[in-house]
Structures are given as C-alpha cells and as structure tokens.
C-alpha cells in the first residue's frame, strides 16, 4: 500500500479508531481533509491543539470543560433549584442539556456497576456523589434503562437511604434497553418531567 | 448548550464536516478523544500537525504524498511497465493500489467533465496527462462507470487519437453506476485484467 507516506497512513489509522469511523471511512475523511486543507485541515489541527491543552475534567462533577469546577458547577443559579442529576457519562449530561432540562446540576459517575466487567463501586465517582448529595434537595438518577444502569440506581438509592434526601428516577418514557444519548430531546424532556419517587 | 466550552464546541463542529460523521457522531468522537487523551487525542493532534506540514500534491501525477514527485512517480520500476492508469481521484488511485494492480503509474484528473456542474477540460489535470502520455505504451482509463466518467474517457480517447498510444479502459466488471472506491479488491483486479481496447 502506497497511501502517500507514513504521515498520511498514521493519520488514517488514528482516525479509524474514532467511534463511527472504520478504515475505509477514515481514508475518505483524510482525503477530504487534504482536499480542504485551508478550510478544514488547518482549523481542525489548531482546534485539536487548543483542546488538548484546554480540556479538563471537572473536579466536582466529572463533566469535561475548559475550567474546573466546570461552567455548570460554577453557575450559582444552577444550585438554587436544589436538583442534582446523576448520569453515567458526559454524553448523557450533554444529551440532557440539549433537551433543555433547566437550571440543574449534574454528577457524572463515569460508568455503571458491572460485576461481569469487573466494575465495582470503587471504580465509579460514587464517593464524590455521596459527599456532595447533602447540598441538594433532590437527586435524580438518570442512568440508562439497562440492567447495569438500574442496578447502579438501586445501589445509589441504598447508599442515600436515611439521609432524608429525595431520590427520584427518570420516568419510564425511556425505552427499556435504550441509551440516553440516542433519544430525541422531547422524550428526554418528558421523562424528566414525569420522574417518580423511588 | 453547555457542551464544555468553545474549544470543545469548535472541535465538534469541525469533525462534523468530515464525510461519514454528523453532529451526533462528531460529539461521540470528541468525547471518545477526551476520554482517550493520552492514547488517541495527543497522537491525533500530533499526526495532524505533521500531516499539515508534510502532505503535498505530486506535481507530476496529482497524487497526495509527502514528497513531490510522489513515491510512485519516483519509483523507476513503475515506469518500466509503460502503463499509465488515469483516475478521477486520489481515492481511486488508493483503491487500485490496494487491489495490487502491480508496477504501474497513475494520473489523477481531479474530477470528471461535467458541463452541468460547470466542470470543463480546463478544470481538470488534462494537459498534464497529454503532456506525459507519450512516455507510456498504454493508457488505461479507469474512470468511474458513471455518465460523467465515461464522457471524460471518450474525451481523453479523442485527445490521444493519432498519437499511436494504446488506450484501454477497465473491463465491464465494474457495476454500472458504481464507484471505484467502494468496490472489493477482487472485482477491481479482474476489471483491470480484462481491460479492452477502445
């Protein structure tokens, strides 16, 4: 294969590791980048350089942002609602933000309990959640509607039992087996409105 | 939308412009990059920086490479066969190389004649082809099997008429309406073997 030198070959191999891109689509993407060097390749290269330096994980909630605490944790208005939404992943946080769920705060677990995969309570950002939960009047558990997600929700409910904090979960508008990031904004919004107490 | 600062938002918007990625898959790709910062984001950033500097268009054939003339044009063994394959695009050149068509040289037109889109002979690398054709014993026209591709093949055949150079086209193993880059290697190999004289 003489796909134009090691620099191009390496770029293809790295792009092929992105979700949604395989070796073939990575090649097309690289050719597209080379064709649009000024309009796309240079800006993308600069944007990646900036992001590498700027992006960090929020020390409070686990969100990704360019500041820590992140812009959501730093926003005082978001604390006033007293609502803390617990999500598995940053993608789920973004999905809820796109759904426009209002002035709330988030806590990103960084995964779900999954004994088969060797993921226990210590592998998740659970102590951080327990530590900050007392500052909120309601904890909304917005895990995916999978077995692992619901197991994690039960575990958190048990941990918070006796603290007097109201613990709720998303309404069963979420299709069973589905993942938050793939839902349309309307469904997510409805599921949050119809949340029920555990 | 508080997708974590302008640096992240800009990265998503740029990645969404790659073929095969939309806004949603670009978001997933960026989150994946941030999660795999050391293993993927840093190497990709560095690879892009290097490619931006290194990648150039071959002054002879139009291929993309890090040297000009490109590694194919610089390879003396590839000149010995006397075969020059004319393709629309660099993606087609790469597809033929993957099919292992042997020690041949290429000429990338950079598109096809398409009066409806305002693409005439002056917009393609046609003069370059006519200028170097005399150094080869056979010109293989490997355009896509589309109306525009075949029109371009006819135009090149007319321009080369009277030069005594043998002009061939790919065999009709290529599905009508299909594009080279999507074909499997076996079909491409067969199509080249069964090429017929125009």
TrEMBL record, chains A, B:
ZnF start-end (C4-type): 58-73
Entries under InterPro entries matching the protein: DNA_Rcmb_RecR (IPR000093), Rcmb_RecR (IPR023627), Rcmb_RecR_Znf (IPR015967), TOPRIM_dom (IPR006171), TOPRIM_RecR (IPR034137)
Domain Toprim positions: 82-175
Gene Ontology MF, one: DNA binding
One Pfam family linked to the record: RecR_HhH
PROSITE patterns per the UniProt record, alphabetical: TOPRIM
Residue intervals passing through the bilayer: none
CDD domains referenced in this protein's UniProt entry, alphabetically: TOPRIM_recR
Gene Ontology biological process terms, A to Z: DNA recombination; DNA repair
Matching SUPFAM superfamilies: Recombination protein RecR (SSF111304)
Sorted UniProt keywords: DNA damage, DNA recombination, DNA repair, Metal-binding, Zinc, Zinc-finger
Gene3D superfamilies recorded: 3.40.1360.10, 6.10.250.240, RecR Domain 1
Highest taxon, organism lineage: Bacteria
UniProt record similarity statement: Belongs to the RecR family.
Job description of the protein: May play a role in DNA repair. It seems to be involved in an RecBC-independent recombinational process of DNA repair. It may act with RecF and RecO.
Protein name: Recombination protein RecR
Source organism per UniProt: Devosia ureilytica
Lineage: Bacteria, Pseudomonadati, Pseudomonadota, Alphaproteobacteria, Hyphomicrobiales
Gene transcribed to yield this protein: recR
């Amino acid at each position: 294969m003489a796909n134009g030198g090691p620099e191009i070959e390496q770029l293809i191999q790295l792009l092929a590791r992105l979700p949604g891109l395989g070796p073939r689509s990575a090649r097309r993407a690289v050719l597209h980048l080379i064709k649009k060097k000024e309009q796309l390749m240079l800006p993308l290269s600069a944007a990646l350089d900036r992001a590498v330096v700027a992006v960090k994980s929020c020390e409070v909630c686990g969100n990704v942002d360019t500041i820590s605490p992140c812009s959501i944790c730093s926003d005082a208005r978001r604390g006033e609602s007293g609502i803390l939404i617990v999500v598995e992943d940053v993608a789920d946080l973004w999905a809820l933000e796109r759904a426009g769920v209002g002035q709330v705060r988030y806590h990103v677990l960084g995964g779900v309990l999954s004994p088969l995969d060797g993921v226990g309570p210590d592998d998740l950002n659970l102590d951080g959640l327990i530590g900050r939960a007392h500052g909120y009047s309601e904890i909304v558990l917005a895990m995916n509607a999978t077995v692992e997600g619901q197991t994690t929700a039960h575990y958190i409910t048990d941990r918070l039992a006796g603290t007097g904090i109201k613990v709720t979960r998303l309404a069963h508008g979420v299709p069973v087996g589905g993942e938050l990031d793939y839902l349309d904004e309307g469904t997510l919004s409805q599921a949050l409105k119809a949340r029920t107490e555990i």
